[in-house]
Design a protein that fits this description.
Structural class: alpha+beta
Number of strands: 4
Largest sheet: 2 strands, antiparallel
Radius of gyration: 23 Å
Low-confidence stretches: none
Mean pLDDT: 80
Order of helices and strands: EEEEHH
Number of domains: 2
Strand order of the largest sheet: 1-4
Distance between the termini: 12 Å
């Protein structure tokens, strides 16, 4: 597999919020009164890679993984290496 693996949102969804739209002028100078409007936006939250890295990190601290370098940077790098392998496996890249 070449390039970065597909990394979708871990928990995709929609966010809705109500906002007040101020009065204004419409076509031909027609007055448009103030009104409420609902805005819908995509909420992606964390990526699937971040979720997988967190799960790998949890396993590391649960004693399921042994490492020789206990520095926080190395531990974090290893969690993302595992996460990348998991993303690749989802696409049939790792056997």
């Amino acid at each position: 597999m070449t390039g970065k693996p597909h990394n979708p949102a871990a928990f995709p969804g929609k966010s809705r919020r109500t906002v007040m739209v101020p009065e204004g002028a419409g076509p031909g100078g027609i007055k448009i009164p103030a009104r409420q409007s609902t805005q819908v936006t995509d909420e992606t939250g964390m990526t699937l890679r971040d979720y997988f890295a967190g799960q790998a990190l949890s396993g590391m601290f649960n004693g399921a993984y042994a490492w020789s370098d206990n520095s926080p940077d190395t531990i974090a790098e290893n969690a993302y290496i595992i996460a990348d392998a998991m993303l690749s496996a989802r696409q049939g890249g790792a056997k």
